[in-house]
Amino acid sequence: MNQQLVASIKYLIRLSEEEEQMLPDFVKRVTLKKNEYFLQEGKVATRVAFIEQGLLRYLTNHNGEEVTLYFSCENEWVGLHESMLTRTPSTKSIIAVEPTVLWTISAEDLQRLYDTFREGDRMGRLIIEDVFIRSAKQITSLYTGTPEQRYHEFFEMFQTIQHRIPQYMIASYIGVKPQSLSRIRKRMAKGIN
């Protein structure tokens, strides 16, 4: 069993030795190649995952153009709960930016985990709360921040992985064209806003 996954769960809840031994019954190791989908827009989300290694991008299609919504990397949980919980087609995709190793849990096994583990419900609530907080911060930034502020927030939030993300994806995330991102970066390097 992956120790990063176990440590992540233990960070959220108390995990008994017996529950830890049961984890392999709930999770499955999956590898994604670069540009391979974890979830494709239009399909119903059927699983969540813990990232052991790699980088994923959340995106949507707006007027024929890909819009980057978020990035997730090692030791984070990923999934589109709004699709999985409502069993409706997703309006977003999750795709590998680089080769990625995941530990997935199906929707059915996740419910079984909630019922079986002493603090399973608490774990689910904490994961959902984290997703909600990140989403709310990003939405607020998108509507209230300037492109420079959004780039600064991107840099702060993804400082350890920003070198792994292509510039056009960063531009998409902060809501500008790649040429505008180049100008923003030059101005910020000179200390001008």
Tell me what you see in this structure:
- With 193 residues, the protein is of the alpha+beta class.
- The chain has a domain at 3-118: Jelly Rolls.
- Helix content is 46%, strand content 23%.
- The protein has 8 helices and 8 strands.
- The protein has helices spanning 3-12, 17-22, 81-86, 107-116, 120-144, 147-157, 167-174, 178-190, and strands at 28-32, 37-39, 47-53, 55-62, 65-73, 77-78, 93-96, 100-106.
- The strands form 2 sheets. A 4-stranded antiparallel sheet has the order 1-8-3-6.
- Helix 4 crosses helix 5 (120-144) and helix 6 crosses helix 7 (167-174).
- The chain is elongated.
- The termini are far apart.
- 26% of the residues are buried.
- It comes from Chitinophaga eiseniae.
- Pfam families: cNMP_binding.
- This is Crp/Fnr family transcriptional regulator.
What does this entry show, briefly?
Helix 6 packs across helix 7. This protein has helices at residues 3-12, 17-22, 81-86, 107-116, 120-144, 147-157, 167-174, 178-190, and strands at residues 28-32, 37-39, 47-53, 55-62, 65-73, 77-78, 93-96, 100-106.
